[in-house]
Amino acid sequence: MAEVALRGVGKVYPDGTRAVTDLNLDIADGEFLVLVGPSGCGKTTALRMLAGLEEISEGEIAIGERVVNRVPARDRDVAMVFQSYALYPHLSVRDNIGFGLSLRKVPKAEIRREVDRAAEILGLTEYLDKKPRNLSGGQRQRVAMGRAIVRQPQAFLMDEPLSNLDAKLRVQMRAEIARIQRDLGVTTVYVTHDQTEAMTLGDRVAVMKKGVLQQVAPPQELYDRPANLFVAGFIGSPAMNLLQGSLAGDEGAARLTVGGQTLELPASVLADRPALRGYFGKDLVVGIRPEDMEDADLAAADGGGTLTSTADLVEAMGSDVLVHFNVQAAQVVTDDTRELARDAGTDVLGALEGAHTDLVARFSPRTTV
Ligand code: ATP
């Protein structure tokens, strides 16, 4: 196990495409770091540079104490788990898992012991003699994990390892990966485009956009304190409500105008964010999480401002009900109508659609302005 560091790392492909720019990340020994971002943001390139599968154009990569810029992939002592699993179809599960050790001429008895240990961890013991084609997707994924585990590498590098699984299995394997990583304590860098996966797995999450790191922080901090609009919109499902507005105010108080409606900002919000005074008289975007938007009838009077709007779509999703409102052409989503749904049954959901509702925008510490 080891810490992993990227310092000023950049990548320009031979055709001139710049995939990664000045990437700086320090990943602690035993940490689970998730690289997340939309398709094409450079996360796979970053991981492949760490693995040694792609040359770096600028900067420095260190694994443990060692700078590995010129160290070939096979000597970097990291184990990569791919989306495709990359299993050998003609080999049994046992031989697939032990393949890397055989290549390194590890004694047979030791390979057997290591494979048995990994199979035990992964619940694969009864499948060791089968061929990959006779396994389910989830089991194949485990075999790929097994191959990484037996190598006892300094770090695991995982590239969308769950994306070939169906939704239910993905959730199950996600929990499994979290458990295995915690038990083994191996430094892990995990790439995904799925923000839910990132938030549930990562000790810290690094958000990338167009090759540039936007923010790296523990999941809760990303959620509560996104560094910019991109992170605010990308992290969280349903997404944060981002409302275009303008701010007016004086020393003691501030008013936010959104879609022709005015919200009084509590003094605490202003006190919490002194920089806001600089925006008096200017346009800005206010970000409010769906769970901070409440139906006025249900909301506790806790200093929120009220927006009146019309519900134009209601989505019942079992435990949550999402109500979409149209405020100045922006979709506002609240998921705090559970009680309403429970109290009144499903009829009220239909009635909600098209109804005028007072929404309370609660200005919590995580309101982003
Ligand atoms: P995805 O989630 O779709 O895999 P990603 O975030 O992993 O995307 P990368 O695969 O790292 O993104 O690609 C980053 C950028 O580099 C993209 O613009 C991509 O088109 C480009 N790119 C990737 N591989 C090459 C290559 N071999 N040659 C030229 N450009 C490339």
User: Biggest sheet, in brief?
Assistant: 6 strands, mixed
Count of alpha and pi helical runs: 11
The backbone outline, from C-alpha atoms, is elongated
> Rg from C-alpha positions?
25 Å
Mean pLDDT: 83
Side by side, the strands of the main sheet go 6-7-8-3-9-10
Question: Helicity level, as a percent range?
Answer: 25-40%
Strand element count: 19
Percent strand: 25-35%
Low-confidence stretches: 340-356
Structural class comes to alpha+beta
| Chemical compounds bound to the protein | adenosine-5'-triphosphate
Order of helices and strands: EEEHEEEHHHEHEHEEHHEEEHEEEEEHHE
Distance linking N and C termini: 41 Å
Please sum up the structure shown:
By secondary structure, the protein is of the alpha+beta class. It is 28% helix and 32% strand.
Give an overview in words.
Helix 3 (108-122) crosses helix 4 (137-150). The protein has 11 helices and 19 strands. By secondary structure, it is an alpha+beta fold. The two termini are 41 Å apart. The strands form 4 sheets. A 6-stranded mixed beta sheet has the order 6-7-8-3-9-10, sandwiched between helices. A 5-stranded antiparallel beta sheet has the order 15-19-16-17-18. A 4-stranded antiparallel beta sheet has the order 2-1-4-5, covered by helices on one side. Bound molecules: adenosine-5'-triphosphate. Adenosine-5'-triphosphate binds next to helix 1.
How are the secondary structure elements laid out?
Blueprint: E1 4-12, E2 18-27, E3 32-36, H1 43-51, E4 58-63, E5 66-67, E6 78-81, H2 93-103, H3 108-122, H4 137-150, E7 155-159, H5 167-184, E8 187-192, H6 195-201, E9 204-209, E10 212-217, H7 219-224, H8 229-234, E11 241-249, E12 254-258, E13 261-265, H9 267-272, E14 283-288, E15 293-295, E16 305-316, E17 321-327, E18 330-334, H10 338-344, H11 347-352, E19 356-361
Parallel strand pairs: 3-8, 3-9, 6-7, 7-8
Antiparallel strand pairs: 1-2, 1-4, 4-5, 9-10, 11-12, 11-14, 12-13, 15-19, 16-17, 16-19, 17-18
Helix pairs in contact: 2-3, 2-4, 3-4
Bound molecules: adenosine-5'-triphosphate.
